Amino acid sequence: MAVGVFDSGIGGLTVLDAITRRLPDLPLVYLGDNAHAPYGVRTHDDIFNLTCAAVERLWAEGCDLVILACNTASAAALKRMQETWIPADKRVLGVFVPMIEALTERQWGDNSPPREVAVKHVALFATPATVASRAFQRELAFRAIGVDVEAQPCGGVVDAIEQGDEILAEALVRSHVEALKRRMPHPQAAVLGCTHYPLMESTFQDALGAGVKVFSQANLVAESLADYLVRRPEFLGKGQESKFLTTGDPKAVSNKATQFLRRRIEFQAA
Question: What is the value of pTM for the model shown?
Fold first, then answer.
């Protein structure tokens, strides 16, 4: 009954942690493609090929349902995967839709035409590849009209977080927020469009100001997954064991992940 969770690095552990709190009895297999991280500066073809390889590895672990806990993969690869690659007995879900449903106050599966929503000015902070894909704007347009999205590519933030350099990460976040606010001085809401960014949520909030509602993904994705599994229990795979896999150096990734989640995490070679 295992579910797979994939990220290019360790940022997806924020999603895994939230899923574990929401569904404590669900075995989870996490795969970090640390050997090829970060994805945010790669081409869409690269991201597609790497993501497909990782998803196949998780299928081999008995995970018929895989969560792409990576905004770059969700933005640059998921639509193509769903249209051309994923077999009928498997499912791969991204992290954008739960966020957009929360932002637009729509229930999961509400396929009614797009409509006016309360939030009109949205700041999106994401990796360069996610921003370039315009996937967030495309998904938002299915559900809402009249929303102005200003996207800020946040170069360097993921690397700083992965390296454990909180001072640099905080400085970069403040710089990126300042750059966005020069183009959109008064956003009503901000979307943290990378699963690493919840670790810097307080810095984003402080830089944006108390009047801006900050949407962070982990808990939204966990709640959406719980709802999905109630409706589609046939996609609970046959895997029974929770584990952490990496394409990188297991010892180094384990140490980073332990710092990241502040509890001991042991990775194995994928």
Answer: 0.88
